[in-house]
Each structure stands twice: as C-alpha cells, then as structure tokens.
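I have a small job for you when you get a moment. Would you make up a two-line entry for one protein for me to read? No commentary is needed, just the two lines. Write everything out right here, beneath this request.
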Amino acid sequence: MRPTARLRCGPYNPQTLGAVPAGATGSTATGGCPAPIEVSTRAREGVVVGGRPEWLKVRMPGGDRYTRIKGRARELGLHTVCEEAHCPNVGECWGGGTATFMVLGDTCTRGCRFCAVETARNPAPPDAAEPANIANAIAEMELDYVVVTSVNRDDLPDQGAGHFAACIRASRERSPRTMVEVLIPDFRGRTDLLDALLEARPDVLAHNVETIPRLQVPVRDPRANWEQSTRILTHAKHRGFLTKTSIQVGHGESADEVLDTMRLLRELNVDFLTVGQYLRPTTNHLDVKEYVHPDVFARYAEEGRAMGFRYVASGPLVRSSYKAGEYFIRDFLRARSAPPGAEA
C-alpha cells in the first residue's frame, strides 16, 4: 500500500495555497473571518508596514539531497505540502536531511486565523497504516532528523495522542538513529493524553504558543489559549523531556512584549525557541500588521541566549521546524547520549 502520510515544512503553514472551504467551522467558517484586529499599523523602529520587503525573498531549492528526498517522496506517494505551500525553507531542510511529516490527516477541527489548513467538525478517521508508512519513508529517505506534527483532532477520544505514539515507535524500529521531534497540539491541556504520547520517548517535545499572551484570543482558535499551551510544555519538562516552542511576529506586538513572552517561556524552562515572521496565506486570514526587520530578529536571538535558552532560531523566514535549530538539537542530543570521551 502506498503511504498516505503528508509532508510539510513549518509549524503554522504560513504560505499554504488555497482558501478556507465554504463549509469550514470555527473562526474560518462561511462568511469570512471577523474584522481585522484593531492594532495600530504606525511604522515604528524595526518594522516595515506595507508590501513585503526584500529580505523575505529566497532562492529556489536545489542540491543532491533535496532532489533525492523530493524524488523518493513522490515515489512513495507522499503529499509534499512543503512544495505546495512554497515553504521558504524546504531546500535547506531537505538538503540537510530533515523533514516534517503531518499525520492524522490534513483537516483540522480548529480554525486559527493565521493558518490555511482546512477545517471541519468531523475529519476523516486516522489512517491505521500511517505509522508504518512514516517509518518506511524515513528509512527510504535516510533522514537524520524528523519532525512529526499534526492537525488538531478534538473529535478523537485521545485527540490523536496514541497515533503520535505509534508513529514514534514505528520510526524507532525502522530507523533507530534518526532523531524524532514531535510538534503536538495542546490536547485541550490534558496531561494524561500527553503522558500516553511521552511513553514512546520522543527526543524533543514541541508545542507552539504561537504568539504573545495578549494576542492569543484574536490570533488562535478560541479553544486554544496560553494557559493550556504552557501546561503542556511544563508537564513535558517535569517529565524530563527537552521542550521547544515557537512565536510568530508581525501581528502588532511590541518588541518588549516579545521579550517578556520569551522570559515567561524561560521561567517554564523551555529549551529551544524559534521566532519567525507571520506571512498571510490568503485574504481570508489575518492581515500582516508589520514586517519585522532582520536586526530585530537578531536582537531576539541574542536576548534569548542571554536568558538561557539552549538555542534560539530567530529570523524572518524561521519556522518551528527550521533546519538550523534541528542541526543544533540533533548534535546536542548525540553529544548528550554519547559515552564520556566518545565522539558524538
């Protein structure tokens, strides 16, 4: 049977093509999004208001490893959302031997206003063959580092936690040296469901807070919130796992608010952080309030390192699955697991 798993790059799919379907539920339901957030668009130091600036332009992907992974993905029947979404980092990620698989289907039960993933009240059931298909794809593509992510599945009794665990275990069996990061939904803050997933021992537990506390309600689906997200990150850390999260900027937040949010995350002992520019996927989604200058992103990285994050990837095109962070995390994990005096 050909694999049905879906492959994508990035945590919040910032450039996925296609409008929200007419039958969608939640904040992206029929009739369009609510009115834009009332945030001043006055230009201020470090931001650009208006059209996309030059620094958001990227080179076309290429390279031997990129070409091989692209070819194998097509041969295996994988849906490469990385390409369809025109993700800016697909060439770097695939060229570096990393990839992000989206499991549990491509239809979400929530409707965050930044995200172009289709929504429905009752998506199709999970594919029972998906864990094996993911494991086969990882082995075939000879990937070093893999991120397994998913849509929200509020319709399932365990919200997909068991499926995540099955994907991790199947991947470990086929490719024991491949590092596995999971980028998970919030499971409605249920730590019992998180525990079921953690029993499969992912290398990194990632969950995205997406934005600063003040903008949680307008940016994210009403069923998501800061408290639920931080509960998940805190519980994973208490269980001894490395944790990772991501923040979008460009929604009208101030630099001080971003730095305050980073401090809150460090108080939770989050290990890895990514900060990237929000890019509007369609006219049905939130407006970009401003384009943050690369120098400001550099400041966030510098401040984050000073706060104690093990790694901060911060830049206009950075996404949660951005390859630079994965390189560091992979090497960090190998060094931590290597015997004293051994070469990681």
